[in-house]
UniProtKB/TrEMBL annotation:
This is Nudix hydrolase 20, chloroplastic-like isoform X1. Probably mediates the hydrolysis of some nucleoside diphosphate derivatives. Gene3D superfamilies: Nucleoside Triphosphate Pyrophosphohydrolase (3.90.79.10). InterPro entries: DUF4743, NUDIX_hydrolase-like_dom_sf, NUDIX_hydrolase_dom. Signal peptide: none annotated. Transmembrane segments: none annotated. Belongs to the Nudix hydrolase family. It comes from Durio zibethinus (Durian). Residues 251-392 form the Nudix hydrolase domain.
Length: 420
């Protein structure tokens, strides 16, 4: 067992919280509490579940925006750092950030600047708690898996469907077979007459349209995801992207860290999502990311997304380096997300300025990597799964080292889902 220190007193991280006295406002506050001896290590320990406790909050000091950063020429909405308004009057807590947010969260780049400053919370530089919090936000509901039925095709479990949601499939008897509970708990399968991938895709697609009309599956994307047992394995059929979490299939994506090196320091280009995007509007994001549709390779998909989201020409994007993958498993109501994200790094020229082409990004900003780490630890400004990919970047580029308490637990937690 690793050694612990007998008298460790640490300051945890600023955390966004809801103010009952002023509904509609979200305040960014740092928490503080003391941990001693063995408790300091236990706070980090993971056993397939990530545990985090924050006991009290105190008011944060205002700070100055950091130097040596660049912002693209997009209009910005500036506001005072305290308070931060949320248009849906909800706290951006760990219990909500992994779900698709459908109303914009209002904060400015000035807010991001202030939260990123080292002096904003000078005691959290060697504290991993904020990172654990973000991993936890993407891996909720493991105790609820018994509420889901296996989705079985050709005797292989390819997904999981909530028992209540499965009741909506019973009326489509020519497509789905929902077995009654028996000794194995029941399951959902496709009708035996649907033998080819094409027939399954067509038939299931018609059902998805009906369910979407009843608003049981919102946000139809008209984009197909492959339904497969493992990445690269034969595809059983293709499923509408918006339906993927309702059928609990594995979904894959590509996420790219675009970074710049200057004066011996690394910077990350960060995007701020459009306030009209249907998911996570107005939140921070990678320079480039996208889901992996059926029939396109990871590298080709990344170059396509680079061009659409940041105006990166193929002459540059073709240099992106695949560096691994992260995974998470999140249950939210009837939704079971089992995502694997392929991670890429792209070193960009100092003079490169991203330019969004598809209207999905409001603006970009070039931020020192250490400051990006502070934003992740201290706020809920980032789209939830982006946190995991950036934490992976921090490990690989030496910003998180074995000297931190919980180093190995945090490293292992980057693959909390089935990464296959």
């Amino acid at each position: 067992m690793l050694k612990t220190k007998s008298d460790v007193v640490r300051q945890p991280l600023p955390f966004s919280t809801f103010s009952p006295s002023q509904p509609g406002r979200v305040y960014l506050l740092p928490a503080c509490f003391a941990v001693r001896g063995e408790m300091a290590w236990n706070a980090y320990h993971l056993s397939h579940k990530i545990r985090l406790s924050i006991s009290s909050f105190r008011t944060a000091n205002s700070l100055h925006a950091f130097p040596n950063s660049s912002t693209t020429a997009f209009p910005l909405r500036c506001s005072a750092f305290y308070p931060i308004k949320s248009s849906n009057s909800r706290s951006l807590s760990a219990s909500t950030t992994a779900a698709a947010v459908t109303t914009p969260t209002t904060f400015s780049w000035e807010d991001v600047d202030r939260a990123s400053q080292p002096e904003f919370n000078p005691h959290d530089s060697a504290d991993l708690r904020g990172f654990f919090d973000k991993i936890k936000a993407c891996n909720r509901g493991s105790e609820l898996q018994s509420q889901f039925l296996p989705f079985v095709i050709e005797d292989q479990i390819v997904g999981y469907i909530h028992r209540s949601f499965a009741e909506n499939l019973r009326s489509f008897q020519n497509v789905f077979v929902v077995s009654k509970d028996n000794c194995d708990g029941g399951q959902v399968t496709l009708h035996r007459m649907l033998k080819s991938a094409e027939d399954r895709t067509r038939a299931v697609g018609e059902v998805i349209k009906c369910l979407a009309e009843k608003e049981l599956i919102p946000g139809i994307r008209n984009e197909l995801y492959p339904v497969t047992l493992l990445f690269g394995a034969p595809v059983f059929f293709s499923l509408e992207r918006a339906a993927a979490p309702y059928f609990g299939i594995k979904a894959y994506g590509v996420h790219m860290n675009g970074y710049v090196e200057k004066d011996g320091q690394k910077f990350l280009w960060i995007g701020k999502r459009s306030p009209v995007k249907p998911t996570f509007p107005g939140m921070l994001d990678h320079l480039v990311a996208g889901g992996l549709s059926h029939g396109i390779a990871c590298g080709e998909n990344l170059m396509k997304e680079c061009e659409e989201e940041a105006g990166i020409p193929r002459s540059l994007s073709s240099r992106a380096i695949p560096v691994g993958a992260v995974s998470y498993s999140d249950i939210d109501g009837h939704r079971f997300k089992r995502d694997v994200l392929f991670c890429y790094d792209l070193k960009l020229p100092e003079g490169f300025i991203p330019n969004n082409q598809d209207g999905e990004v409001e603006s970009f900003k070039l931020i020192p990597v250490r400051h990006v780490a502070n934003v992740i630890k201290r706020t809920h400004f980032f789209k939830s799964n982006c946190n995991i990919v950036i934490i992976d970047f921090l490990f690989r580029h030496g910003y998180i080292t074995p000297e931190y308490f919980g180093y190995l637990d945090l490293l292992q937690s980057l693959k909390s889902g089935d990464c296959s």
